[in-house]
Amino acid sequence: MTEKSSDPIVFVIDDDASVREALKSLFRSVGLQVAVFASGPEFLRTELPDAPSCLVLDVRLPGLSGLDFQTELERSDIHVPIIFMTGHGDIPMTVRAIKAGALEFLTKPFRDQDMLDAVQLALERDRARRETETAVSRLRASFGTLTPREQEVMTLVTAGLMNKQIAAELGVSEITVKVHRGHVTRKMRARSLADLVRMADVLGIRKGGQA
Amino acid sequence: MLSELASAREREVASHAELARVTRLTAMGAMTASIAHEVNQPLAAIVTNSNAAIRWLANATPDLDEARAALKRIANDGHRASEVIGSIRALFKKDRSAATRFSLNDLVLEVLALVRNEMRTQDVSVRTELAPELPAVSGDRVQLQLVVVNLIVNAVEAMGAIPPDARHLVIRSSIAEPDRVLVAVEDTGAGIDPEDADRIFDAFYTTKSQGMGMGLAICRSIVEAHGGRLSVSPRKPGGSIFHLALPSAAMSPA
Fold it and tell me: pTM of the entire structure?
């Protein structure tokens, strides 16, 4: 089977070698790429592939606890979805983990289907997140190609002003406004005004809208 | 009315949490957590390896090498789990060098002093009927303390669901001729289902939502390692009595 660098991958962090090996075999048996680590630092030291991924992590790791590691990941701007495992769970720990954004919390020994379902969901979430991030980057890049005046026009158009009002606001003719508008629509690759408004929301430039 | 209920509930939750904290603070609590973790690791590996092997074999072309490798790992993990259990048992083998002579009456009073606050918070009334001149026992004081703590904590938890003014804990000590000392821990709680009575001393058996089921199994191991016996009988009209019997030390009362 040829591996694409963008094939989804599961990262496992557990200090117990048996658990690592067993999970590796399980994930591979359903065709998933998997990489295993014995500790949080080991994972952080590794260069991560550019692919949808998720993290299966034991809450009880020597040194940094799984929950502290979760905080550490956020601080390092790593937003990989997390599934926690534990050999001994208590309710406060579960609640803390879920509140901190963990996708799932499984007690060992867990049913393989529960783990696989959680991983499936996690990978879908990560795929969606990566798509959104890419889309936002693209929008920002496009917005960057607008001239300052075009950026102004886009802000005013998406705020709901008519061409006439924009012309008055900027002290130019209506025709000039229309020309700028055309450029904006083309450069931003907007298919409609509604589309442009949505883009302005994502970019956070819409006045009177949700920044 | 609602806010009264809410604050009563809050107090109940807080005192449960406090009781759980006391349990955790005792060495047994910490120990059973470690033990559970240690045993659940190889168990998780065994279950996961088994499931992986099933999936490898269910492939369009079954992958026998992968399945075989998984089965080998299962065998190793099984042995590792049994080693963990073995080391737990070794922990509780009676260690002659740690044996001292002491009175169970003293031990009971010490433990009650330890849990006095929790009794108050939980509105549990405590009565002791301790036989004077109780013969001493010989053994590991810390281990037997853990047993008594566990029995008392269980009793208090068993009474958690009944009205506060009905929560009565009685601890009795007595002599059973010719050479045994008995301590009975009696509660007025929900009692134990006769169906479960045999199983409550089994390892990993628990009726609590948050229990690991190790407490009573460990208690029994400790007691038996001291040549004694731990059992339970129902209390009429409701509740349970745990009976701890130990051989008295050869010499005269402590």
Answer: 0.57
